[in-house]
Design brief:
TIM Barrel; eight-stranded parallel beta sheet
């Protein structure tokens, strides 16, 4: 697509035509070294997600609709978080266009900002990715309006996907992430739209509490269908924490031959409460509606060491596209990267408790303070070499 054609498309607020999109994507892909598939062939690729939860915690995004208005209101903060995740070890800068689609923006009265918010998010992500040598990913997601037997909703969903992918292609993304689908059939619609762009697709499902998609497909079956339809990478993201995602990953790995994606939420889900939406907290009576999701999940948070452990186990199962979803912070991504044998820039500041005034081993520390800690905190005496 020429610049003049791109300008006309922007002015009319219409997605790029499929033929133009394919031509544009192929031309750009031909100029790039080491794309997603090449990097996956060399080893694991880390992708940091979780922008919605992080900005909600920081007070720049409202829980509920979860529309990424922060992209327009504080682009500096979005760029900064991208850089923090890259600093921590992410190989991918994923444009913050999750829920920046027509249906969600309509709910908060900002549908008129649809194109602006998508192009701004992609521009921010592109600046960081191209400046750091990381991959640039476009992002489309579950639409919130899809109905299994609702043909009208299918047409609306196709329009949503096409227009977002058109803007992603204009931004020169390396691949597109289609994520958090609980309907396997909606994921297939998303994949069809990505395929028309000529770009690689990373497709991840969010498997509900029942353990199957909302049509009743197993995770393995849904991923098998996505691979057969042309997905470059298939797997799971969101909803499930490490403990309840790993068993499904094992089943998916046995069902597909393409690279496997694994991006859990950093929360301690269980067999009885396998998704973070289903968690309950009997220790707290003040949680609204007695439902910790999404604003009272703090007691269930995984620590960085649990995320590192997950990374090792998922890698052992054959997952190669790894990350952390809603609730992730840069410390989780750094821990994941280090578990995979890397030392990202943030590793300069990884914990070194040998220098702690109470729990350290450095001979320059006050010995009476260390002895006090051993008496009062019941730590065994350190073994000195």
């Amino acid at each position: 697509m020429s610049r003049r054609e791109g300008s006309r498309a922007a002015a009319s607020r219409k997605p790029a035509k499929p033929a133009e999109t394919v031509k544009s994507a192929r031309a750009r892909t031909a100029q790039r070294p080491a794309g997603l598939l090449e990097r996956l062939a060399d080893g694991p690729v880390i992708c940091a997600e979780g922008y919605l939860f992080e900005f909600e915690r920081r007070g720049f995004l409202q829980a509920g609709a979860y529309v990424p208005e922060v992209v327009l209101e504080r682009p500096d903060l979005v760029e900064s978080l991208h850089r923090e995740f890259v600093h921590a070890g992410s190989d991918v800068v994923e444009a913050f266009t999750y829920y920046a689609h027509r249906a969600k923006l309509r709910i908060v009265g900002r549908e008129r900002d649809l194109e602006q918010i998508n192009r701004a998010a992609l521009s921010i992500a592109r600046k960081v990715a191209r400046g750091t040598g990381t991959l640039l990913a476009g992002d489309i997601c579950n639409t919130s309006i899809y109905g299994l037997e609702d043909a009208r909703s299918h047409r609306q969903v196709r329009r949503i996907f096409d227009e977002q992918i058109g803007w992603a292609v204009d931004a020169g993304v390396d691949f597109v992430v289609g994520e958090t689908y609980s309907f396997g059939s909606e994921a297939l619609l998303a994949l069809q739209a990505i395929a028309r762009s000529g770009l690689p697709a990373v497709m991840t499902l969010s498997i509900p509490r029942e353990g199957v998609t909302r049509e009743g497909w197993t995770a393995a079956e849904a991923c098998r269908r996505l691979e057969a339809a042309g997905a470059a990478v298939v797997g799971l993201n969101c909803a499930r924490g490490p403990a309840t995602m790993l068993p499904l990953l094992k089943e998916i790995r046995a069902a597909v031959s393409c690279p496997l994606a694994a991006l859990p939420v950093p929360y301690r889900t269980t067999a009885l409460e396998p998704t973070f939406q289903s968690l309950t907290d009997p220790q707290c009576a003040c949680v609204p509606d007695n439902r910790p999701f999404p604003t009272a999940l703090d007691p269930f948070a995984c620590n960085r060491y649990e995320i590192a452990e997950f990374g090792v186990e998922a890698l052992g199962l054959g997952a190669r596209y790894l990350g952390v979803c809603c609730g992730a912070g840069p410390h989780h991504i750094r821990s994941l990267a280090e578990a995979l044998g890397r030392r990202p820039p943030a590793s300069r500041f990884s914990p070194d408790m040998s220098k702690h005034i109470l729990f350290g081993t450095d001979k320059r520390l006050r010995q009476d303070a260390l002895e006090y800690a051993r008496r009062n905190y019941r730590f065994p005496a350190p073994v000195r070499s």
